[in-house]
## 1
Amino acid sequence: MSGERRPAAVTCTAPINIAVIKYWGKRNEELILPINSSLSVTLHQDQLKTTTSAAASRDFKEDRIWLNGREENINQPRLQSCLREIRRLARKRRSGSEEESTPCILSYRVHICSENNFPTAAGLASSAAGYACLVYTLATLYGVETELSEIARQGSGSACRSIYGGFVQWLMGERDDGKDSLAQQIAPESHWPELQVLVLVVSAERKPVGSTAGMQTSVETSPLLKHRAEAVVPDRVKEMCEAIRQRDFERFGQLTMKDSNQFHATCLDTFPPIFYLNDISRCIIHVVHLFNTYYGQTKVAYTFDAGPNAVIFCLEQTVDEFVSALRCCFPPESNGDMFLKGLPAGPAVLSKELKMAMDMEPRPGGIQYIIITKPGPGPQLVEDPSLHLLGKDGLPKHSA
Ligand code: DP6
């Protein structure tokens, strides 16, 4: 390929987010409009991220996409919505501007290549990071800067929250066209520096019922979900915003656990019922409550999405001791060295009293590994061209 025929290419990364007030249920399937507002914490990309490269070239015959080294069907409706909306905005931005008469990459086809550095569909919100990254990367390629959370939402609801770092609210909105159903940052990642997040990977397998299908059945059959959306979440979102603003861990942790429990209660209230938690998930819940009861305050808090993995919030000063407690209750099996990933945790000696308070049958291998992370920033542009996932020929550098 000659110099000027090289594809225009951009690479970006985007974070996953974990909801502390859950989104579950749509009022409009096509536009992905939720039945309640939700609130999340964006996790740091040093530990968990999606990387996406997008290139446009007059040599490309069709739009194509590769996910984790495998080519996927680009004609899926949600992918098409994101591509169509970004191109619409790019066209709008160009019309009337000086660039209008110059050759435009907008008329070219695109190649997109995306990779996660964590297991896909393990209940680790891979679709959120994936769609946020896709939309941010295409927007950067075409020079679009507005409405990104609205477009990411049309890829996967929770993706709209991954467009921002720190603490993020997704306002459900009232309009039928979804123009007011978007995410907003309520505090940046620097707001609560002591807050840490432990991702406990219980199972890296694909979930039995995906979120999209699961929430659809819940909307159709669960009276508890209706009650939750109308009577519980509105006040809870306000209270959670307050707890975050005041860095009040006691309130933040209690609300986080109660909301996770209510979400899983709506799953049980769905007919036929959906079970995302397993035996180990329930043991983790038990361990958290034993730990908090021993201290007489909320020192650690759990939340679970549509899968058995737990996400634990705690303050920095609690990490070492709680990780030691987890090691006691879920002794690592073969991969002792690989048990902890991400930010460091030091050794901690558990007092005899705490050990007695945590008295339960150990579950060897119950937790495969723990990723220690913290709140982090929103999507980022990758400047270093050697990190692009597509080669100069517009094809993935690595295949599955
Ligand atoms: C349990 O955003 O994956 O993680 O909009 O159908 O793509 P779709 O669903 P998705 O649902 C996420 C559900 C959740 C809770 C949350 O993240 O708020």
## 2
Amino acid sequence: MMENENKKVMLSGIQPSGDLHLGNYLGAIKHWGARADEFDCYYFMADLHTITVRQDPAQLRRRVLTQLAQYIACGLDPEKNTLFIQSHVPAHAQLAWVLDCYTMFGELSRMTQFKDKAAKHKDNINAGLFTYPSLMAADILLYQPDYVPVGEDQKQHVEICRDIANRFNGIYGDVFKMPEPYIPKVGARIMSLSTPDSKMSKSQPEGCVFLMDRPEDVARKFKRAVTDSDTERCVRYDRENKPGVANLMAIYSAVTGKSYEDIEAEFEGQGYGKFKPAVGEAVVETLRPIREETERLLADKAYLEGVYRAGAERAAYVAEKTLRKVYKKVGFLPR
Ligand code: TYM
């Protein structure tokens, strides 16, 4: 129905390892739905990836369902986008094993996310954490996408995916299409509101704005946002010297569509006292309909089940086609 040979393909995923935050929204999801008529789109909940770090099973189930509701609430129409749960399509794990055998220990060792997570979870540096990028390569290559819309921190993983695909194609011919990362101009790297030199992430909840936060909490987080200690106290875009202000400007620009020059003009001579609450207010208004729609959808479990069942079926159809081709190329005897 949705599969169309002539349409370009877009694919991406998010780990349901925590509640979705403003970084996930501005860096990724916001850009997914915009071109659903033009592209054949696949978006999934990357639950297989989450168990590289210990998860509470009940919480994981709840988060996957909430994330699906949030995808829809953010504007991804399930009739126009294939929305599915990664673990419902076994081809992901199956292709990941094959790709593991075409991925080098050295290249995995260089992955920033592995180094960060290994440092954070010293007592659980498991093999899955290490081979995570080949599972992600499988997620991507199964659907032969043209574009993978992600935030900046995932660029390295899309690049290793291209290296793996190139290596495989070099041996067996053109099996995989070469995917391009699609990284937005504004919002690709939203920083923490409390420590603007590190990216916004759920592991630092004080500086992180969650999509389901209550409006008063969002407003409070922005009022307390760290700006800078220079005496100038003017709203000016300078990533190097004023990272906190630059980050707030990036957020304001991403949610209002205003350019940095417009923003500088709007707050000229006003200091941060007016600016910070204004950014908070704009974010509250952006998140309000998403939160309300998510809550409404979560009350209708039967509808969500219908969406993820249909999504898994469509995704599996496409994924299995690629997997069969790969199995044949490497020499597995057909069943
Ligand atoms: P994850 O779950 O950490 O993040 C999901 C998406 O949100 C983006 N993002 C951000 N963008 C801007 N500013 C931030 N502070 C910020 N934090 C997160 C990420 O870049 C990402 O686009 N490995 C992936 C999930 C994944 C995947 C895939 C993605 C698994 N398989 C296949 C694409 C294709 C991950 O951990 O993203």
## 3
Amino acid sequence: MVAVAILAAGKGTRMKSDLPKVLHTLGGRSLVQRVLDSCHLVTPSRKLIIIGYEGEQVKQSFEDISSLEFVEQKEQLGTGHAIQQLLPHLQGFEGDLFVLNGDAPLLRPETLDNLLQVHQKNNNAATLLTANLPNPKGYGRVFCDGNNQVNQIVEDRDCNAAQKQNHRVNGGIYCFNWSKLAEVLPKLSTNNDQKEYYLTEVMDYLNPVMAVDVEDYYEINGINNRQQLSEANDILQDRIKKAWMAAGVTMIDPSSITIDDTVTLAPDVILEPQTHLRGNTFIGAKSHIGPGSLIENSTIGEQVKVLYSVITDSEVASNCQVGPYTHLRGEAKIADSCRIGNFVEVKKTQIGNKSNVAHLSYLGDAVLGERVNVGAGTITANYDGYKKHPTIIGDRTKTGANSVFVAPVTLGEGVTVAAGSVVTHDVPSDALVIARQRQRIIEDWKAKIMKKQSQYKD
Ligand code: UD1
Ligand code: CA
């Protein structure tokens, strides 16, 4: 049995932020959510999050609170003190406990799985992840014998000049035999520069303790300030983009593209510069996205073109063309082979197959059938100041340029709407609706007006 405990009680002073450090986001997920997600291969039966500073906010940030146990550390007296808080919660627990720093978001699930296997195979009391860093400043240094058996961990600030020469650092990621750890936790002292209870001191009492080096030292990067957050973002983006390119995605100027690791791309997708894909987004095969597009929590079909557009919380089926300068949002659903064009905003609206909304329109809370042609400047007046109302437009209906639909209103199939109409009542199928004043012509008006004006001249 495996349990995991994540240290997330600290404020993260060096972030200079109102937000607790572990809630800063990287690629669309909070640091602590990322750490939690990195445990999925070791299938923990219990997941404990140690909270303190802004604890309630940290708790509410999780996607699935019900599967987690929150342990409060009222005062942050150090990482050892944080783990001491687990003692009443894990009483009688038999198995291994992972302890993970909540600020190490680049950890890979495979690395934890490997750590667990080494730990169990060697019957270790503790196994910890280490790395040789070119710049080890700020990290605890790990001192081992020739067989990776750990003798001691010394924090950077407690190191003497000779100890500082050791570049092998503690990643803050450990696997413990819980009952052995529980036995020695009460022994921790505050005999160090910070006068804190250091978790690393347990290594003095446990045996055997083994260090395992990570291949890619980025994995143990702890985020302590905004610069490290931005560096972690670069590393993450690099990882994500290389993986999608290997899977058959073309990227033009990848350094200008960002992709959350919650996004899925099909083969032969082409991403052009300044394209940003976020959240739970899927892009189908052979779709061509960008330049200059933002797509968030949306599903895009195959062979879709999206140019200079913003799409959020929406669905676009295959063979559609979107943009330039289109905004789809709030559950817009565009069926196959539609064209949504320049300066068109579509909100919470369904559009049937082969319909076109090519220029300068707002469609909100509407349902459009198939092969509808929405004329330039068509607007649904969906809001009366209190409530939103629907507009229904049947198959093959054509709306004239500059028509306004004052919702709630329903148009049948094959309706023709005259340009400039303000439609306030339902229209039956196959009708023509003209809802504007008839044009009037006053002959010789200019001569009359000139005459009138000359009377007032002095
Ligand atoms: C810690 C390790 C250090 C290691 C480094 C890796 C100790 C004493 N040192 O140092 O050896 O190289 O991580 O990144 O463990 N936290 C609590 N309660 C507390 C104190 C901290 O929950 O009372 C949490 C913080 O929110 C953070 C994590 O523990 O998520 C690590 O704390 P931090 O202060 O960043 O430790 P480091 O000094 O980086
Ligand atoms: Ca840290």
## 4
Amino acid sequence: MNFKNVTVYQIYPKSFYDGNNDGIGDLPGITRKLDYIRGLGADYIWITPFFRSPQRDNGYDISDYRQIEPMYGTMADFDALIKKAESLGIGVMLDMVFNHTSTEHEWFQKALKGDPRYLDYYIFRDGSPDEPPTNWQSKFGGSAWEYVPHLKKWYLHLFDKTQADLNWENPEVRGQLKDVIRFWKSRGVKGFRFDVINLISKPAVLENDLTGDGRRFYTDGPKVHEYLKELHREAGLDDVLTVGEMSSTSLENCIGYTSPREKELNMSFSFHHLKVDYRNGDKWELQPVDYRKLKDILETWQLGMQTHGGWNALFWCNHDQPRTVSRFGDDGAYWKESAKMLATLMYLMRGTPYIYQGEELGMKNAGFDSVGQYRDVESRNYYNILTQKGLSDKDALEILSQRSRDNGRTPMQWTDSRYAGFSENEPWIGLSEDSKGICAERQQNEKDSVFAYFKSLIELRKNEPLIGEGNIEFLYSEREDIFCYRRSLGNREMIVLCNLTPETVYGDFAKLLTGMSGRLGNYPDISVQTDGRLRPYEAVVYQYKAAF
Ligand code: GLC
Ligand code: CA
């Protein structure tokens, strides 16, 4: 399984392309846009859940793992998608949400009827209605427990109350989930992304958390490595690409999840580098990006995984995150430069890139300014929590405008026409305010567009083995204003040098790059001046000419 040189493109189907003009993206829409993805150079697409679901959490609340939610299409549409993808050499990865199901899933419905077999599929605890079994908090706000009066029991939900956590202790549950993998594999699926997979193993005895929200008890829980090994072995994950989403995880655990000798997963998503603008670790308290911290985290994870043989998924954003350029770059004056710089910095490191729809165009945050524009369950819950805490409407909306997951969920911008060419009818969620300026159609024809740059980056990864296979070493670690590393393999070498700031910065870069030539850069002329100057947000990639 070669996963080191490939690039994955993430699709959020609801917002990607609407094939039948009902305002909601769908599977036929994806099929029609596969040529675009091939044009970009991606090898895999990861499609977030389109299974049967009441859509409380946009499909992460699954009520049937083997059926397709009708608004996304039919099984025949899925088969057609696979067929077209295969013909283009694109592998399809699906999103397996195995920590929980929707409370509308048949299993939960049977549990609600008191069937002991299915009660044991979930985490139910007896108790009085006025006191939940533990003080654990849901990641979407409020208690992680919901009371079912007629059963006189509580059930655990680490996310929305309609997302009940599965009981992985029960071998029958694990068996069911393996079957789901086999089912989709047999339909031609070539990879899986496992949703919050490091939360599946809860301790046998659940206790109050006197110092936190409970996560320390179930994050990278007692049997998680054992369960992943079993899944790998018995569901047949050897010949597909696998990535686990790891919530609040540790480097040590991710080494375990991804070291080939452990036979668990190919790679992991970790999120520490996306919390460097949280105040005291709180997503809902604003703070400017701490670039010092960002550098430290990326370096620690890169070197840690390298030393111990683990593998990172490389990413800046996804459907749960604000837009990269608005968050880490400058989406005004240096929009184009900073979007390209951030891509250079991230995607030439050691790991596998995941590009999220619209990122390759430099799409920006949504710019919503009223609560009615938000669709996301987490955003709406937190709007209420924040205003109940006493924040003004204006302050709560300011926080949402920077932190809401909907920033990344506005419709993909295909053209300059009405609804950005996403649909001919009003989309289920409003367009981003940048939708008049940024679109795929135009960028595909422009030589210096963000799209063209992403394309070059992906191509470079493919043609230059040292990016997938080589060693990484960080330079200028002590400097907060630049990010720089050397990649090497045998006698081949590459230097990636990025200015993280809107200012011109200086250093002994000319010396560092002696004898090398620019291979890629985000300014029309790739050249580090002899005075060692790097322009605002400049990114350059240097190699010895003989190696080009
Ligand atoms: C993951 C998904 C997110 C979802 C959550 C619960 O973090 O990426 O969208 O809300 O899991 O399934
Ligand atoms: Ca549709």
